[in-house]
Amino acid sequence: MKRKHYEKSFFRVGVILMAFVFAGFFLSSCAKPEKEAELAKKVEELTKKVDELSKKNAELMEQIAALKKKVGEPIILGVPTSLGFLEGKEGLACVNMAVEEINAGGGVDVAGVKRPFKVVAIDSRGAEPGVPVADVIRAHKKLILEDKANFIVFGSFRSECAIACMDTVSQYKIPMILGTAMSPAMEKKVKTEYDKYKYTFRVCLNAVYLIKYLGGTMAHLNKQFGFNKVFIMNQDVAWARKTGDLMIKLVFDKMGWEVVGRQAYPTGASDFSSGLMKAKAQKAQVILPIFDMPQSGILVKQWKSMKVPALVAGFISPLAGPAAWNSFDQKIDGALNCIFEIGNVPCPKVPKSVEFYNKYQEKYGKPIEAGHSPAPAYEMVYILKEAIERAGSIDADKVVAELEKTDRMGAMGRIRFNDGHQVIYGEDPNEMAMGCMIQWLAPGERVIVYPESVAEGKIQLPEGLKSAK
Amino acid sequence: MLLGTLIYGFINSCILALLALGFNLTFGISGVANFAYGAIYIFSGFLTWIILNSIGLPYLLSVVISILCAAIIGLLVYYIVILRVKGLALSEVIATFGLGLAIMELFRYFDFVGFKYTLPVFFDGSVGFGEVYVDYQRLFIALIAVGLTLFLYLFTRHSKTGLAFRAIAQDERTALTFGIDSDRIGALSMAFGAALAAIAAIVILPLGTIAVEGGYEVLINALAVCIVGGLGSTVGILVASVLIGYAQTFTANYLGPHWMMLVSLIAIAVVLTIKPSGLFSRQKELEERI
């Protein structure tokens, strides 16, 4: 009985469950059309949204592409110089300083596209003893062929190398702006074979202008103290030899000075006693040194210790910067030294030179020590930027044509090129670029004494020297 | 002019002798090649400058530390480099020369470039000999050179260690039978030589600036003096220094300074052709005869 009762109950429960299942199926089949409609609506909305987003994405992509187009590929500046020499080291620092300033301002505007400068430097070691010209040419070729340099700035330390590299840059049509090499042979090449060598420019002082400053100083010494006997001591490298030759030919012979002797020293020489003894024996009143090697500072130390009664007036690279006073045991009092370009020394009468000098000191935490190259290195980047912007292209021939039209007021005064692609130097900073002569005076001050247009004081004879008048 | 040439010729001779003493002790007397000699000379100059200017220690203390450091470098070079190629003369030369190049180029790499690297003179001022003035520092160099030459002469002849230096160069195996530890003596000789290079640097460099390139010149001059004088001979060093020193000064004064460097190179070439053992090297002469 009990079993029957259970069977009946199971049957009932089964029927009820079946009824629920069928009811569920029935209800779900009735609700389906409504849910499908909702889903379709949702899909439609989402599709619309996706369409809108992809449209926006496309717009943004276009904007990015336009921006990318505006900030174009970097313009590569190759800097092959002798980084082991003070002029090379500080020159590169000045190139970097100018590049950072230009890039911070958006870069170079090349026909509406802002392109940053990028510096690729290489230590070509061209200033070292023996002047390895072949190595320097290889350094130029590496920059042009491997690093894809568009321009060479501050290239080739020594004239021997710069002149050889003129052929290299001409072969690849890469404009090159020089900042240390000084031989006038470079301009001669540009003038005689313009189409071939037009790619080379020089912003720093050359030997001819150096002679003008040194000649002017000698005339001043003659007028002020009656000096007319000189002993020349020069480094045995192209620019210094040429400067010595031209000083004799263009200055001393014409002014009636007696050149009582001349001695050339190889790069790296560190004992100058032979020349100083000769100068003393020949009763020279002025010693004209022409050196750009670090060891040449020893000459002044020896001049003091050997008590040679002659005024040292010329160019000794280590004597240019403010550190020289302590480096040479405060024994350079009275020495006259040429600063090849103002800006390397602050010249109060040329405010831009002071601005540049201070900017360098602020950035690098130390003052400029080189008397040759830093200011031209800084200016040449701006000169190039302006020429590219005027040309609206980085095409070599177009940029060269615009470089020739340069007219800019900079740290060195007014900057313009002559027909030999050399910046014109003179005595009026409003008309030309300028160099100057400084005299070291106790307690370690550099006083500009020549040219008169920017002079801060008169030349003073050091202790033990007497005027010939 | 002649008096000046004679005085400055003498000082130049003293400078050459001072430069060659350390090299002669190591290479000449003990037969251990140390072609990193020029680099150790430059290293000592820069180290003194760093201790003096960057750390700010007194000059004399800086000098002592530099000399000690140079000696330690000499020891390390012996145990790390030379010991592994000992007995292979050419390998010793190449290994130490390469090490020297690396040391010098490292200084260049770390920007030790420029004229600011100068050391102060020990004695300031100058004294006149007739019309020729000579600074006290040069006279000090002459004094140190003479003193050290004398010391080296006595040391290698009358001290146990000095005699051991000579013994290992003459015959290492025989020296070993006498209980001389050739490795210890070789290392000591390197340390002594490096310390002498440091002393030379510290007294000579105040005359000018410390420049990396100076290392090459020092090595060539030291080599020239040792070859001309005869390897291992202290008297030979003295005579060769005077010969080359005066030849250089007369050449600079009467021909031109560019010919100065040629004097050392020509002297090496002539002596190696005519008398390869040098002017005063009896031991080497005997070896060559055998």
Which features characterize this protein?
heterodimer; A: 469 residues; alpha/beta; Rossmann fold; seven-stranded mixed beta sheet; five-stranded parallel beta sheet; 14 helices; 18 strands; 18% strand; B: 290 residues; mainly alpha; ABC transporter involved in vitamin B12 uptake, BtuC; two-stranded antiparallel sheet; 2 strands; 3% strand
Short description:
The complex is a heterodimer of chains A (469) and B (290). Chain A is α/β, with parallel strands linked by helices and 469 residues long. Chain A has helices at residues 2-70, 86-104, 133-146, 159-172, 185-192, 194-197, 207-225, 238-255, 273-281, 297-305, 324-327, 351-364, 374-391, 396-403, and strands at residues 75-81, 108-110, 113-115, 117-123, 151-155, 176-178, 200-202, 229-235, 258-265, 286-291, 311-316, 336-339, 408-410, 413-415, 425-426, 433-434, 436-441, 445-450.
Give the topology.
The complex is a heterodimer of chains A (469) and B (290).
Chain A lengths: L1 H69 L4 E7 L4 H19 L3 E3 L2 E3 L1 E7 L9 H14 L4 E5 L3 H14 L3 E3 L6 H8 L1 H4 L2 E3 L4 H19 L3 E7 L2 H18 L2 E8 L7 H9 L4 E6 L5 H9 L5 E6 L7 H4 L8 E4 L11 H14 L9 H18 L4 H8 L4 E3 L2 E3 L9 E2 L6 E2 L1 E6 L3 E6 L19
Parallel strand pairs in A: 1-4, 1-5, 5-6, 6-7, 8-9, 8-10, 10-11, 11-12, 15-16
Antiparallel strand pairs in A: 2-3, 12-17, 13-14, 17-18
Helix pairs in contact in A: 2-13, 3-4, 7-8, 13-14
Chain B lengths: L1 H28 L7 H19 L3 H27 L3 H21 L16 E4 L2 E4 H23 L1 H11 L1 H6 L4 H23 L9 H16 L4 H21 L5 H15 L7 H8 L1
Helix pairs in contact in B: 1-5, 1-8, 1-9, 1-10, 2-3, 2-4, 2-8, 2-9, 3-4, 3-8, 5-6, 6-8, 9-10, 9-11, 10-11
Question: What does the model show?
Answer:
The complex is a heterodimer of chains A (469) and B (290). Chain A has 469 residues and is of the alpha/beta class. Chain A has helices spanning 2-70, 86-104, 133-146, 159-172, 185-192, 194-197, 207-225, 238-255, 273-281, 297-305, 324-327, 351-364, 374-391, 396-403; strands spanning 75-81, 108-110, 113-115, 117-123, 151-155, 176-178, 200-202, 229-235, 258-265, 286-291, 311-316, 336-339, 408-410, 413-415, 425-426, 433-434, 436-441, 445-450. In chain A, the strands form five sheets. Chain A has a seven-stranded mixed sheet, sandwiched between helices. In chain A, strands 4-1-5-6-7 form a five-stranded parallel sheet, sandwiched between helices. Chain A has a two-stranded antiparallel ribbon with strand order 2-3. In chain A, a hairpin with a 3-residue loop joins strand 17 (436-441) and strand 18. Chain B has 290 residues and is mainly alpha-helical. Chain B has a single domain (2-289), classed as ABC transporter involved in vitamin B12 uptake, BtuC, CATH 1.10.3470. In chain B, strands 1-2 form a two-stranded antiparallel sheet. In chain B, helix 1 (2-29) runs antiparallel to helix 8 (182-204) and helix 1 (2-29) crosses helix 9. Chain B starts with a helix and ends with a helix. Classes of the chains: A alpha/beta (469), B mainly alpha (290). At the A-B interface, strand 9, helix 9 and helix 10 of A face helix 1, strand 2 and helix 10 of B.
